[in-house]
Design brief:
Elements: E1 6-11, H1 27-31, E2 49-50, E3 54-55, E4 63-68, E5 80-81, E6 89-94, E7 100-105, E8 118-124, E9 131-136, E10 138-145, E11 151-158, E12 170-175, E13 183-184, E14 192-193, E15 213-214, E16 220-227, E17 230-237, E18 243-245, E19 252-258, E20 264-271, E21 274-282, E22 287-290, H2 296-299, E23 308-313, E24 319-325, E25 336-342, H3 356-363, E26 367-372, H4 381-385, H5 394-407, E27 412-422, H6 424-435, E28 441-445
Parallel strand pairs: 25-26, 25-27, 27-28
Antiparallel strand pairs: 1-4, 2-3, 4-5, 6-7, 7-8, 8-9, 10-11, 11-12, 12-13, 14-16, 15-16, 16-17, 17-18, 19-20, 20-21, 21-22, 23-24, 24-26
Length: about 450
């Protein structure tokens, strides 16, 4: 909370039920024989499991709770449930004055049959006086109040018709009033608001704060933007939508937070040869100062190399961005085995961020090519959505044009070509071996 005395959180657990400490069995458990738990699952919904949590239990709903910070050592304050009912709530945020809680929900029994929709509510701290602030036809991401609490900014994806396979996220601003209509500030800006470069070294549990940040005077907003395989901060005028760069470079800003006046920020920055370190960023001077070097000792003992960035022309004249990761101590006069790595999604993107798999394969002596074929993000709405009703298809041709581009360099053993990818990349791996015999080996990850 703004006064620092209370924490708001989402939980689906009944927190009033306490369990014995780990490793301790109650007397009742010791005397009573353990009952067999049936492994039969009765599925009654179309969406019954999720990547990560596994099987979903429709009886458990996520609600908003608060808990006060302990005033004395050893005190265990009792959590207080703020919202109730048969629908999930989450993404809770305090009002600037701390008098109310805002949260997001979609109160439809089976929303996956409907177009994306998000409702923003506010509620008093005792759970009363619930109000619907916004009904947004689309997917709403993190939202932030202006300093005076009169406006709300958020990243989101409009629910457009006809339905698109990929709709680029934009930045929206609205007044903090019941029934206010959000205004799309970046409708004419053709890149992904909110970042979106993919690597394999993200913290699986830790949050990655990346909400919109208001300037102190409320005249501009700071957001992360994915553009051509890079993710950098942009300053966007809150009235006109004019975009100007705040940071530049071949890297990904993975997460960030700021001081209340937005004069200073701390950024988590990842590159092709650095998993991630913290940097202090001055928003006025754009000066970036490194704060940590957490892997310095380890990385000083291994040979990591930056990839070679390439742009090549595909079959229909479209330009495709890719990267060639070469083995340490690369010698262009030698012949190397080759691996094409294909990203998943398919609406995602490789780029200038640390990916252990590429470095590991290169260390084993392979030249690795990874590209962003059509359908990838960070190249605009049309490029991302062009594979709708045609996937896999022309994106496979983009990938093969990339392979041809590397073969022209003369240092690849054409009899030792491999292809791999996960999720959507697994789909395209299967497609590739069904359409060409050029690969000697293939590994379809995450797809059977």
């Amino acid at each position: 909370s703004p006064d620092g005395k209370t924490i708001a959180f989402a939980s689906s657990e009944e927190l009033k039920k306490s369990a014995p400490a780990e490793g301790v069995e109650t007397k009742e458990k010791q005397e009573k024989p353990r009952e067999r738990v049936s492994d039969v699952r009765v599925i009654t919904r179309a969406a019954y499991r999720s990547n990560g949590p596994g099987y979903l239990n429709p009886k458990f709903k996520s609600h908003i709770w608060t808990v006060s910070l302990p005033s004395t050592a050893g005190e265990m304050p009792k959590p207080k449930q703020i919202t109730k009912g048969n629908f999930d709530e989450g993404n809770a945020t305090w009002s600037p004055d701390g008098s109310r809680l805002y949260f997001v929900a979609n109160r439809v029994q089976e929303p996956y049959y409907e177009q994306p929709h998000t409702d923003l509510f506010s509620v008093a701290l005792d759970g009363s006086d619930e109000k619907k602030v916004l009904g947004f036809d689309g997917g709403m991401r993190d939202y932030t109040f202006s300093g005076d609490g009169r406006r709300i900014a958020f990243g989101g994806v409009d629910a457009v018709k006809p339905v698109q396979s990929y709709t680029q996220p934009d930045l929206f601003v609205m007044s903090n009033e019941i029934g206010a209509k959000p205004r799309n500030l970046t409708a004419g800006y053709d890149f992904d608001i909110g970042g979106g470069i993919g690597g394999d070294q993200r913290a699986p549990r830790g949050g990655s704060p990346s909400a919109v940040i208001w300037s102190r005077d409320g005249k501009s907003l700071i957001v992360n933007v994915a553009e051509h395989g890079r993710a950098n901060l942009k300053r966007i005028d809150a009235s006109t939508g004019k975009v100007e760069p705040l940071t530049t470079g071949d890297h990904e800003i993975v997460a960030y937070t700021s001081t209340p006046d937005a004069s200073k920020m701390v950024l988590l920055v990842s590159t092709s040869v650095n998993i991630g370190d913290l940097f202090l960023f001055d928003t006025a001077s754009a000066r970036m100062t490194r704060l940590t070097s957490v892997n310095e000792e380890l990385f000083s003992q291994i040979n990591l190399t930056d990839p070679e960035e390439i742009w090549y022309t595909s079959f229909d004249g479209r330009k495709i961005q890719g990267w060639i990761q070469k083995p340490p101590n690369f010698d262009s006069s030698k012949k190397y085995p080759f691996i094409l790595e294909i990203h998943g999604g398919p609406h995602s993107a490789y780029g200038f961020t640390f990916t252990h798999e590429f470095q590991w394969m290169a260390a084993k002596g392979y030249v690795v090519l990874y590209t962003n074929p059509r359908g990838s993000t960070s190249y605009g709405q049309d490029f991302g959505n062009i594979i709708q009703y045609n996937y896999p298809g022309d994106d496979h041709k983009d990938l093969m044009a990339g392979v041809d581009e590397v073969l022209k360099r003369g240092y690849i053993d054409e009899k030792r070509l491999g292809v791999t990818g996960g999720s959507g990349g697994g789909v395209l791996t299967n497609w590739a071996v069904g359409h060409t015999n050029r690969f000697a080996a293939a590994v379809s990850q995450d797809r059977k």
